[in-house]
Each structure stands twice: as C-alpha cells, then as structure tokens.
Write a structure and sequence with these properties.
Layout lengths: L2 H7 L10 H9 L6 E3 L2 E3 L6 E5 L6 E6 L3 H20 L2 H17 L1 H12 L3 H29 L3 E3 L2 E5 L5 H14 L3 E5 L6 H12 L7 E3 L4 H9 L5 E5 L2 H11 L5 E5 L5 E4 L5 H13 L11 E5 H15 L20 H16 L3 E3 L15 E4 L6 H4 L6 E7 L2 H8 L7 E5 L3 H10 L4 E4 L18 E2 L4 H5 L3 E3 H4 L17 E3 L10 E3 L2 E3 L5 E6 L5 E6 L3 H13 L1 H5 L2 H17 L1 H12 L1 H22 L5 E3 L5 E9 L2 E5 L5 H14 L3 E5 L7 H10 L8 E3 L4 H10 L5 E4 L3 H10 L6 E4 L10 H4 L2 H6 L1 E9 L3
This protein binds 1,4-dihydronicotinamide adenine dinucleotide (NAI).
C-alpha cells in the first residue's frame, strides 16, 4: 500500500483533552455554586437549585442556584451601590482591571476551554482555539476603550446599572461581549447566564475576585427564564442587553416599554450563504463547514440557507456531500472531533422536529453514513436540498447542524432570496469578482456580511442585526455607544406635557370653506386631502383661530408609508447629492424666512418664531454638512481581513414631533433622518400643525424626491399607534411626552423596530449641543460590517 493510500485509510485514534484541571476546579467548589453578588458567593434566597449537565455524557457536572426576584434584587442593589465609585474610577484604572481580566483569562484558558466544552458540548478545538482567544481579545480591546473613553466620547456617560442576559451557544464569549464594553464605559452590571451553561460565568466570577475587581461591579445570578424576567422587570436597572431567541427578545421589548430602560437585542437569524458561479467552490465548501457545522450549527449567524447559482449547484452539492462524509461527530473533548453534542434534549427534539417538517414539506434529506456515539445528545450533519424558499426550514431558525439549500439564477434573484426572511443578522457571499460580491453585500439586509469567508468575529468590529434580528451592536465603537448616553440627556428634567391648543374631537369638523388657512397632508410629494374628510381647528397664543389642519387617520399613514417605501431614489442617492438637496432646503428656508416667521409667530410668539426660523436655517446647513461626513470606518481585526463598517440608512422612519417648537423640532428630527438616506413619515405637532403648509412648499422647491418625506397631521396618539404597529416602518422617533414614548415602544413589539425617544424628558432644541449632531445621526443609521479578505 502506498503512503497516499495508507493516509486515506488511516483511522483516527482517540485524542482526548485532559479534563483534570476543570474537574478539579469544580471539585474545589464541591460542585455547588451560589450566586456571585457584591463580590461574594451567596446562597439563593429561596434555596432552590438545579443541575448543570454534560450533554455529551448526560452526567451531572455541578449544582447551581436558581435566581429568584429576591436574588436579582440583591444583585441590582450591589451593582447600584458600586456604580458611582466605578463610574468615577479614572479610565486608566478601569483599563488596568480589564487588562487584568484578559491576562487572567489567558492564564486559565485551558481550564475555561475544557469547562466550556463539558458544559456546552462544543468541540474542544473550538472552545480552545476560537471562544477563549476571542474572550481574551475582547477584554484587551476594551481595556483600550476604557483608557480612551474620555478622549473619544466627550460629553457621554455610562447608562448606570445594566442587566445582561445571555444564551448557551457561546457562554463565555457572549459574557465577554456583554461585560467588557459595559465595564469599559463605567457601568456596573448583573449578568444572567443561560440555564444550560452557567459554569464558565461562575469561573469568570472567580476571576473577578482574583483580580480584585471592586465588589458589586460584576454580579452573576444563575437561573432560568424567570430569573431573566425578574432582571428585565427590576425598576432600578437602566439598560437591558439581551442575546437569545427573537421570541424572548419580543417579550423583553414589551416588558421594558413602560420604563426608561435602554435596550439592545441580538436575536435570531437565518443567514444566507450565497455562492456565485465564479466562486472558488473548494473554499466555499470549507466556508460551509464553518458556516453551518461550527458549534453544531447552534450559532445565531450560522449560514443556514445555502443559495447556489444554478449552473454550479450540482457540482457544489457533490463536493459538499463528499466533505460532509469526512466530518467527525463524537465526544467533544476529543481534539480531532468536528461536531460535538447538542446542548440539551429540548434543542435536539427541536432539530429533529424541524428536519421532519422540512422533509414533509418536500425537501430531500441527506446525511453521511456515520455512527453516532451511543450516549449523549448528537445529531449528524444534515443537508436539506430542493427546499422551497417559503417552507419552514428556509424561514425558521433551526439552530442545529442542518443546511437548507436552494438555487438562484441571477444576482438580483440571489439578493431577493437572501432578503426573503424576517431576519437580518449575517450573510456570506462567495464570488471571485469583487464587484459582484460587494454589489450583493450592499443590497443584503444584514448587520454583517462576510465576503469569501464566514463566521469571523472580532472585538473591533460590531456584530448585530437588521430587522427582527434585533438592534444595537456588540464590538467596536458602534458597540460601545450602546453603553453610553449623552450626559446632558441623562440629567435632562422630565418634560412638561403641553396641552395647549391640542387637537381634540370637539374642534374637529368637516372640511369647509371660510377659513383663511387650510393646509393639506403631504404624501408622495403631493398635497393630499385626508381620508376622513375632516379637519381640526388650530388656535394661536391669543386663542384666535389660525386655520384648519387635516385630521389624518390610519389610511393616510398607510399611504404615507407606502410612498416612503417607494422613494428608494433617496436612499440610493449619493451622500453628496443628499447634502446638495439639504443645502437647497436651507437656502429656500432663508428665502421664505420672513413669511414663515409671520405665520409661526401667531402660534409661538415673535421671539420664539424668530429664533426657530433662524436656527432651522442653521440646522439645515448643519445636516447638509453632516450628510457626507457621518460616515463609517474601516476596522482592522487581527486577521488578513478588513471590516468595512458602513453606515446604512435604517429605512422608513416614523417621526412624532415635539409640541413646544413646531418648526425647529420637526426639522431637528426630520433632517438627520433624511441626511442619512432614510425616508420619513412625519407627524407634525398638534399645537401648530399648520407648519405643514410652509414645509411642503419648502420641500417641493428643494429637489427632494416625492415620498422621501411625508407629513400627516392629526391626533398624535392615534397616528403614533398606526406608525408603531406598521410592519413597513423600520424605526420610530418619538419626541413628545412620556406617555407617547411608552406607546411607541409598546406598539413596536411586532416587527421589533428601533425606537428612539426623549423618554418624556425636556430637550432644549435651541441648544445645538442638545438638539443637533451625532446623537441623532447615530440613531438614523445602522452599521453593516462587510468583511473583505485583504492581502495574500
Ligand atoms: P432563549 O431566548 O429562551 O434563552 C436565552 C436567554 O434568555 C437565557 O438566558 C434564558 O434563560 C433567558 N430567558 C428566557 N426567557 C426569558 C424571559 N422571558 N425574560 C428574560 N430572559 C429570558 O433561548 P432558548 O430557549 O435557550 O433557545 C430557543 C431557541 O432560541 C433556539 O432553538 C434558537 O433558535 C434560539 N436561540 C438563538 C440564540 C441567538 O444567539 N440568536 C441563542 C439561543 C437560542
């Protein structure tokens, strides 16, 4: 037999990693853990415990505590009492703590990797070579952010006490993604690990003790969903950061609507893996191994939908099946294993159920012939081909080693299929043509796109979703801002609700002649009569009748949203073009300044009218300037890749305007939204909706494409509800009273749209530091990181 033949027929011998150190650590804790609160281990208030199980053997690893609302309360109190001191700790000192954490994780890397594999079932090769090194990298990188925070984020401050809830698929890595930026920016926190995988979080707690992190800065409470729920509902938590299923993300959005808690959600995905006919197919196959069989496919950004150009589909599937035949499924502590155990019986059942459903829906199922271990939770690598794009297995997250394959003909069809889910977490695009790859990457609705690569992560580059994959980023500058707030905003007083001149049913009546000034709605670049046929009277400062405004209803909002969706020319316009149009708005505003002022002064008085008009001109200039300057960044991960952090528009934004400043408030919100390429449906304030008439004249003469901005007047609360519940609205900016902020969040649960509000606080729109700039622009974009191979 030749050496080559010998090589092909050679069997793998066992190559187990030594678990002694990790098991020894568990034994030192007598395999029993309390919560980590205020720097010490505390037994659960209700005395309830549960077991953490090794999914590869079914053996019990340790007993951990079930967190009750009382435990969460002590942890939040500990975090609160540690907050002011931690926040006031100089950046350099905080940096040294984070640096010490990174060093300690490195020192204990073997123990942590083995513990992770025991608790989760993932191959030791992955926990040793991917999870733990990325954890270390995250703490080093954020030690740097702590050091630079004051220089890089002047005027910003920590949110406060943060509640963090993480899933079981990357237990320690998700912990690092949450804890490192929170600490770097001066927050204190309570973290709840997933019930299936609490052990590395507890090992991390010990690291916090070891490096002398001040008590209460990091608190870890173990438990199930009910513990998470108690954390979400605790009144003294300022922000919730969650990673997990879209279903729970939705519940959390609902549960936090009536509070001021900030929220970031990293949810599910059904990410496309798109292979064009000019791709290097062998590399694409290796990419797929990583894309869907990494961590048994239990990865939120797994490339679970294979989209193949028709001409190479057969060849690619052949190569893929051959490669699948070489994948080794088995005990995860074995260093030569590719696919380990599924985390828990409930997850294994879910995978089986969804695969059966896929077959019932007409998919062809292929699995390599292999013998699964006789005990433990294992599932073979699985290929479902001939999958219909609308079928369940093409739409729902399976979260297992199952690939659903489909084909396409043209790049346009590839994009359409790629975007044909409610999710938008990640995508992988394979083509040897940089033009094709980047053209497609730009059109895919996802927070991360890997070109000729997949599943790459780094602390310097934001990770997070579009659409129902959530909002907010983790990693990089874009991730850090999630833990910061403008200092002035944090200290802003609660707003006084203005009820003056507010539209009411009593003053609504059918549109009729006789009143000097009757404005219309502005939809799709045209003046429109309201569907209701009704209007309401608008009064001035001296209670004199100023005119009538249309009473828009849900039909008008729907028409406006449709017009905004169609105005794609605006989102495709170059930043330079958008800047030119906004300069034109500014120019036309100054030409009309005196007539607008005369009308506005009857509603807000002469002094305010003058100030509003002058500042509105300035603000238009400012956002024209920003339009081509608030751009992205190029991140430099420690790989031969560059990650292009592109600032993309969110889509269609619904805007509820403040009552106190009819013109300046509206423009301060609409202009940043437009500057970043979004389209807008604006509800002008109820106090002086007649401003609409001045604005549509302004927009009409400024080359703004029809539909880019739409104005619908009426009762704010009704129009807000329709906007918030509308699935084609991608974000809501609500700057009215506190009750409207709650309604905006509660109504947005359906499609998990981003919500940006003043939380009912007073904003001084006349002060550019408050009413203008980066804080608004940041909420008008979503960051898409496009990773491109670079160098050899
Ligand atoms: P899950 O979303 O229920 O759990 C994630 C975390 O949220 C855990 O720590 C859990 O204890 C906590 N949690 C559960 N209910 C909660 C509530 N009402 N309030 C606050 N916290 C709560 O995910 P699960 O049940 O473990 O997995 C179910 C499916 O979710 C998976 O099959 C997969 O499709 C998806 N999933 C997605 C993840 C992602 O990273 N995108 C991660 C984990 C699961």
């Amino acid at each position: 037999m030749s050496i080559a033949e010998n090589f092909l027929t050679m069997e793998y011998g066992p190559a187990p990693e030594d678990a002694k150190e990790a098991l020894g650590w568990l034994d030192r804790h007598r395999r029993h853990f309390g919560h980590f609160i205020a720097g010490t281990w505390q037994e659960p208030a209700e005395g309830t415990h549960f077991d953490s199980i090794d999914p590869a053997t079914g053996e019990k690893l340790a007993t951990v505590s079930q967190g009750s609302p009382a435990d969460i309360d002590s942890a939040v109190r500990a975090a609160r009492s540690a907050f002011s001191k931690w926040q006031a700790t100089p950046g350099h000192e905080r940096a040294r703590y984070l640096y010490a954490v990174a060093r300690a994780v490195q020192r204990h890397s073997r123990r942590l990797a083995v513990l992770e594999t025991l608790d989760n079932g993932k191959p030791i090769r992955e926990s040793r070579d991917i999870d733990i090194p990325l954890v270390t990298r995250h703490f080093y990188h954020h030690a740097g952010w702590a050091q630079l925070l004051d220089q890089e984020f002047p005027g910003y401050t920590a949110c406060g006490v943060v509640g963090q809830i993480i899933p079981w698929n990357f237990p320690l890595l998700m912990l690092a993604w949450k804890i490192a930026p929170a600490l770097a920016s001066g927050n204190t926190l309570v973290l709840k690990p997933a019930e299936f995988t609490p052990l590395t979080a507890l090992a991390f707690a010990e690291i916090c003790q070891e490096i002398g992190l001040p008590a209460g800065v990091v608190n870890i409470v173990t438990g199930d969903g009910s513990t998470g729920e108690a954390l979400v509902k605790h009144p003294d938590v300022d922000k919730i950061a969650f990673t997990g299923s879209t279903e729970v993300g939705r519940a959390i959005r609902g549960a936090t609507a009536s509070s001021h808690k900030r929220l970031s959600l990293e949810l599910g995905g059904k990410s496309p893996f798109v292979v064009f006919e000019d791709a290097d197919l062998d590399s694409a196959v290796e990419g797929l191994v990583d894309g869907i069989w990494f961590n048994q496919g239990q990865v939120c950004c797994a490339g679970s939908r294979l989209l193949m150009q028709e001409s190479i589909a057969e060849a690619l599937l052949d190569k893929l099946q051959q490669r699948m035949g070489t994948l080794r499924v088995g005990p995860p502590l074995d260093k030569a294993i590719d696919i380990g155990a599924i985390v828990a019986p409930v997850q294994l059942d879910r995978i089986r159920r969804l695969v059966d459903q896929g077959i019932a829906d007409g998919a062809t199922c292929w699995q390599p012939e292999l013998v699964l271990p006789s005990r433990g939770l294992f599932f073979p690598p699985t290929l479902l081909s001939n999958v219909h794009p609308a079928s369940l297995v093409a739409q729902q997250e399976i979260f297992g080693p199952v690939l659903a394959a489909m084909s396409f003909r043209t790049p346009a069809e590839a994009v359409e299929l790629a975007n044909n889910t409610l999710y938008g977490l990640a995508a992988s695009v394979w083509s040897e043509s940089i033009n094709v790859a980047l053209h497609v990457a730009a059109q895919i609705k996802a927070g991360v796109v890997w070109v000729n690569s997949t599943n790459l992560f780094d602390a310097s580059s934001g990770f997070g979703g579009y659409r129902e994959s959530g909002f907010g980023r983790e990693g990089g500058r874009e991730g850090l801002v999630e833990y910061l707030e403008p200092t002035w905003f944090k200290n802003a007083p609660a707003g006084r609700t203005s009820t003056r001149h507010t539209a009411s049913k009593e003053n609504a009546h059918e549109l009729g002649p006789g009143i000097d000034r009757t404005v219309k709605l502005y939809i799709g670049g045209k003046q429109a009569r309201p569907d209701s046929g009704y209007s309401f009277e608008v009064y001035g400062t001296n209670r004199e009748l100023l005119g009538e405004a249309p009473l828009g209803n849900r039909k008008d909002i729907r028409n406006a949203v449709e017009a905004a969706r169609k105005a794609s020319a605006w989102s495709k316009a170059t930043a330079h073009t958008r800047a030119q149009v906004l300069y034109y708005v500014a120019e036309n505003l100054s030409l009309r300044a005196s007539e607008i002022m005369v009308r506005l002064e009857r509603a807000v008085g002469r002094r305010q009218a003058k100030k509003e008009v002058q500042l509105s001109i300035e603000r238009s200039f400012a956002y024209a300037a920003w339009a081509d300057k608030f751009d992205g960044a190029v991140h430099n991960p420690p790989l031969r890749m560059i990650a292009n952090a592109m600032h993309e528009p969110i889509g269609t934004v619904g805007i509820i305007c403040p009552n106190e400043v009819p013109l300046l408030g509206l423009l301060s919100l609409a202009l940043p939204v437009l500057a970043m390429g979004n389209t807008a449906v604006v509800v002008p304030c109820e106090t002086y909706p007649l401003i609409t008439g001045d604005l549509y004249q302004l927009f009409d003469t400024s080359d703004l494409p029809g539909g880019a901005v739409n104005l619908v007047t009426g009762y704010t609360s009704q129009l807000l509800k329709t906007l918030a519940e509308h699935d084609d609205v991608d974000a809501i900016w609500c700057f009215a009273d506190a009750a409207s902020a709650v309604a905006a969040k509660a109504g947005s649960v359906g499609n998990l749209k981003q919500v940006f509000t003043n939380e009912g606080r007073t904003i001084d729109w006349f002060d550019a530091k408050q009413g203008e700039g980066r804080w608004f622009l940041q909420h008008a974009i979503q960051v898409k990181n496009i990773w491109v191979p670079y160098g050899e």
